[in-house]
Design a protein that fits this description.
- By secondary structure, the chain is mainly alpha-helical.
- It contains six helices and no strands.
Length: about 150
């Protein structure tokens, strides 16, 4: 039950960020519905839809690509992903020992460190209409290298 509560606690700031970005209640309703689906049926597509909706909404919102809301969304959406995956395989009334969560927490921290390294690198890539092919290839190559490293963890 605590894993499902963690899904809700991670989705609350996601809803708040999307609400502040959009200035309407529509994101609150959409996130609430998708969170309910994810909590009630963690093995469903609810988590993927929630993550995809939030990412899509942030990508097409006005503002700098590396604004605070985007940087906060990275670990929040990853936490929703991890907790819904755990909730899908752990029965609701199972008591979870903290030692069991050590490996997922370690992988979570490593992936977040890698994600923020890519974001830090992306902060130095020039933006605007004259983005060079070399900068995009460099960012893409770095992402591929980090992805390969992350798969070995």
């Amino acid at each position: 039950m605590l894993i499902r509560l963690a899904i809700v606690l991670a989705a609350l700031p996601v809803a708040a960020i999307l609400h502040l970005e959009a200035d309407t209640v529509a994101p609150l309703a959409i996130v609430a519905a998708l969170t309910a689906i994810t909590v009630l049926m963690p093995a469903s597509a609810g988590a993927a839809l929630l993550i995809g909706y939030a990412a899509f909404a942030m990508a097409f919102a006005d503002g700098h690509p590396l604004r605070l809301g985007v940087l906060l969304m990275i670990p929040l959406l990853h936490l929703i992903h991890v907790t819904s995956a755990l909730a899908a395989v752990v029965p609701v009334k199972t008591k979870i020992e903290p030692a069991v969560l050590k490996a997922p927490a370690r992988r979570f921290a490593i992936v977040q460190a890698i994600s923020f390294l890519v974001a830090a690198f992306a902060a130095f890539v020039p933006s605007g209409p004259g983005i060079g092919l070399i900068e995009l290839l460099g960012l893409g190559s770095l992402t591929i290298v980090i992805g390969v490293v992350a798969l070995r963890i």
